[in-house]
Amino acid sequence: MPYKCQCPSQRIKTHNLKVRSMFKACDGRGTTKIFLSIIYTKIPHQICQHSQHSTPICRSGKCEIHRKCSLMSSLALTPFKAGLFVGKSIIVTGGGTGLGYAIAKELVSLGAKVVIAARRIEVLEAAASEMNKSSQRGGKIYVCQCNVRNEDDIQKLVTFALETMGGIDGLVNNAGGQFVSPVENISARGFKAVVETNLLSCFMLSKEIYNRWWSQQEDRKRSGSIVNIILANKNGFPMMAHSGAARAGVENLTKSMALEWIGRGVRVNCVAPGIIYTESGFANYGEMAGAFLSSVLPCIPAHRCGTAEEVSSLVVFLLSDAAVYITGQNMGVDGGMGQGTIPLRPQDHGASLLPVYGELPMKARL
Ligand SMILES: CCCCCCCCCCC/C=C/C(=O)SCCNC(=O)CCNC(=O)[C@H](O)C(C)(C)COP(=O)(O)OP(=O)(O)OC[C@H]1O[C@@H](n2cnc3c(N)ncnc32)[C@H](O)[C@@H]1OP(=O)(O)O
Ligand SMILES: NC(=O)C1=CN([C@@H]2O[C@H](COP(=O)(O)OP(=O)(O)OC[C@H]3O[C@@H](n4cnc5c(N)ncnc54)[C@H](OP(=O)(O)O)[C@@H]3O)[C@@H](O)[C@H]2O)C=CC1
Fold it and tell me: Which residues line ligand 2 (CB under 6 A)?
């Protein structure tokens, strides 16, 4: 099947725009879509000539287009100035995959020392060896196995970070997740597991670092920044109610910590991603994910998923001194969804809420 190129290379050439990152997706029907996020760095012309994209699609990952896609991904750069995080030490939980990986990678490319922590050590090690290739100016990734639901593991993580990096300037509470279920089918243990994974973990790790490091610093200039990754749950989170509730807890905890710790120079903020395509994240939902994506994309004002790098930029900004007057906030990265409800649950239940007062005209019904 001939490949229909959607690459906006003409625009890039004409306006000399800058390209930061690329999102590619095979739709399984022989078409590869290439989305360019036209922002920061200049795309080399030889990579993005319109004519070079008229190749038939393969799904092996080895064709010319895939090669160019990978090349483009590896060109993804940061909008922040080189060396911005030199001398800074940061913990990113869940940093071996998806959003956490993108955040850790951007930080290390800016010179930070970063501990990535999660349960699967082999995933962390593979990620670290990849990321260390893009490290700049002394940036380095260290790995630490940690189940964030376990308080002993949390204490060991903080000990490891202090010993290897000599301090902690930033924390990204990104590890998290949930499973899909209607409320009535969630067991108490299941609900508790999700609350522990997303809320208790954030409380335990933030507190541990505060008590052992931030509260001990004489020099308040060496301040701390915590960024909590939550999700777009402003109007509830049907089919993942446990997670919606846990993240609402994180948002409120964020405000309390922000107000209590501001005197110690510690800032605390939330980032609420909308629907961000990460291979690892979506793999948790198996076949449901594909169907979900096709029904949900038209409901996103931007008509596309976000990329991990688009979340990472905001997280890195909040960690940086550029955000020194920002604390207690929750910011969405959601393509215009306004941190609203993700329509996980199709409303195909019929007229279950019948009007009690008066008649509802036919045209006002589904
Ligand atoms: C309707 C359409 C759906 C579309 C799907 C696309 C969704 C896109 C959403 C976009 C927004 C959000 C994106 C993301 O969050 S991406 C990140 C996703 N990553 C993860 O979720 C990974 C982490 N998740 C987990 O580790 C688990 O879900 C959990 C937090 C629960 C931990 O599980 P674990 O097995 O370690 O827990 P326990 O062994 O302690 O078990 C405790 C109880 O939990 C019950 N449980 C666990 N998994 C499930 C399940 N899949 N379904 C039902 N119940 C589950 C388990 O049974 C235990 O309870 P019981 O003893 O009572 O049985
Ligand atoms: N992708 C999206 O559309 C959205 C994602 N989010 C949130 O962003 C965060 C990252 O998601 P994403 O990167 O997409 O998905 P991933 O599944 O790739 O990331 C989840 C990460 O958390 C780690 N993790 C999960 N449970 C634990 C645990 N108990 N202890 C330690 N680490 C744990 C996992 O590693 P391991 O399994 O090795 O422990 C994994 O690295 C999550 O909190 C997610 O809920 C929010 C909104 C939208």
Answer: 93-94, 96-100, 118-120, 123, 146-149, 174-177, 197, 229, 231, 273, 275-276, 278, 280-281, 284
Say which ligand is closest to the CA of 202. Answer: 2
How far does Cα 194 stand from its chain's mean position? 18
Q: Distance between the two ends of the chain, CA-based, in angstroms?
A: 40
CATH of 89-339, one of 3.40.190.10, 3.30.750.24, 1.10.10.10, 3.40.50.720: 3.40.50.720
Q: The whole model's pTM is what?
A: 0.84
Start and end residues for every CATH 3.40.50.720 domain found in the chain = 89-339
* Residue identifier of the C-alpha nearest atom 46 of ligand 1: 190
Helix (H, G, I), strand (E, B) or coil at 226: strand
Taking Cα atoms as reference points, which of 98, 95, 99 lies closest to residue 112? 95
pLDDT digits (tens, 9 = 90+) for 166-209: 999 999 999 999 999 999 999 999 999 999 999 999 999 999 99
* Ligand 1 mean position, distance from CA 111 (Å): 35
